[in-house]
Design brief:
The chain has about 60 residues and is α+β, with helices and mostly antiparallel strands. It has two helices and four strands. It is about 40% helix and about 20% strand. The two termini are about 20 Å apart.
């Protein structure tokens, strides 16, 4: 649903990022839904992702 995004992008959306070399902090996306863990893997509810996508489209 979100396209071809990397694991690093997902991690950044969930947890934010701190560039040590650039001394820059990127905060996590506050409206990104939390995953559901099943057997150690992350899954997202379709309804949560649809809400996230529609919220981002309205803000743009």
């Amino acid at each position: 649903m979100l396209g071809n995004i990397s694991h690093a992008t997902l991690h950044c959306w969930q947890h934010g990022l701190h560039h040590r070399t650039r001394n820059r902090i990127i905060p996590p996306l506050a409206d990104f839904p939390a995953p559901v863990m099943i057997s150690g893997r992350r899954y997202w509810r379709r309804s949560d992702l649809e809400k996230f996508i529609s919220g981002r489209a309205k803000a743009a």
